[in-house]
Amino acid sequence: MFHNFDGLTRNEGRWLNLWAAFDVTGDYLGTFTLDDLRAKAADAGKWVSAVQYRRAGQQIDQAALAQTFNGLPRDTTIFAFSGFRVSPVRDMGGSIEVCDPGEHEFWSVYGFHQDAEEWQIVHDAPWGEIGETLARIVELTGELIEYRDLSHAYANTRLPDLVDLLAQRILDEIPDQDDADARMDDADAHPLEELRDLILFALDTRRG
Q: What is the DSSP string of 121-164?
């Protein structure tokens, strides 16, 4: 079991969590950086086979502790990736392809695999789950999140900043309030509002 410490460490230009590890008897095993955990995962997958997170001094939803990532191959952990991306996707009859928001059937999270040096699927999020999925990945890895569809991309973004970027795009794409075609629910009806709202909800839950 791993518990997050308040302290952060700087590594390769990003802020990373420090983790305290305990075995099943409760004995303290040490405090580790993300790179330390990745090295241990390469030697013994059990170190990260059931990672649990709890912010120091706070209780986290038990559903978040139990979450798994449905796109990871057997024996691959979330620590094998050095970056993550969320995209709207749709099923094209046997292949899942990135599309524009509004054309999507669900949201997928991809990770950049360090050894393979390529983007690989990490998780296909069922309806209503994408915000919690992204927040948990950030908690576990300390990595930034990219957003990408067919026409827009936001690279290396903190989740709170991604919320703001999505909000600005929504405002840019809906009719001006003075426009005769404008409606009160234009922003709520925008296809990116689901993603923005679910990320914001996950962040607010953690501020709790």
A: EEEEEPTT-HHHHHHHHHHHH---EEEE-SS-EEEEE-HHHHHH
